[in-house]
Amino acid sequence: MLDGWMRRRIDPPLDRVGQGLARAGVSADAVTALAFALGLAASLMIVLRLDALALFLFLLNRTCDGFDGAISRGSQSTDRGGFLDVVFDFAVYGTIPLAFALREPGPFAVPAAVLLLSFYINGASFLAFAAVAAKRGLVGSIRGVKSIYFTAGFMEGTETILFFVTMILAPQWFPVLAYAFAGLTLMSALARIVLAWNVFRDDENSA
């Protein structure tokens, strides 16, 4: 819900820095790979209970994720870069609940599993919507210029970051936060399914 508001504020400074990095020869793909490595390192720190370091690495991961898109906009975006960005983001978001489950298997395993299931369902609805939207020639820029069609939801990037940061800062609250996060994520998936039901009408544009 907050991504549209946030993008209007962070995209201009990100783009200015991204253009400078692009002129300096920094590759968006290299920054994407760096972000992925930082995200995996953050998850490992969660398992090892090094929470301050985990938070630092996760915030660096999100910062690099913002810069890779800005660099792409400042140079020439590629399908490969867009693909890697989506896959690596999904991977990092999946490793964080897994890290908490490995950290405290007893109390954290079930909430982490429920959260990962909600990610799976939401990701399926997100990617399926994007695939059909691409087939029908639909475009959208509500969440900035993206490689695939983004639909708004209750849980977007900003909310995800806030939940993960809170989990790292207060790991004892992970079960409650995970269930709340999962509920909102499933609401996003349901809203996207309803949207698809109304937008992708076969009588208007046969699939």
TrEMBL record:
UniProt keyword DNA-binding present: no
Signal sequence extent: none
GO cellular component terms given for this protein: membrane
Pfam families registered for this protein in UniProt: CDP-OH_P_transf
GO molecular function: phosphotransferase activity, for other substituted phosphate groups
Keyword tRNA processing in record: no
Any one Gene Ontology BP term: phospholipid biosynthetic process
Protein's UniProt name: CDP-alcohol phosphatidyltransferase family protein
Species annotation: Microvirga alba
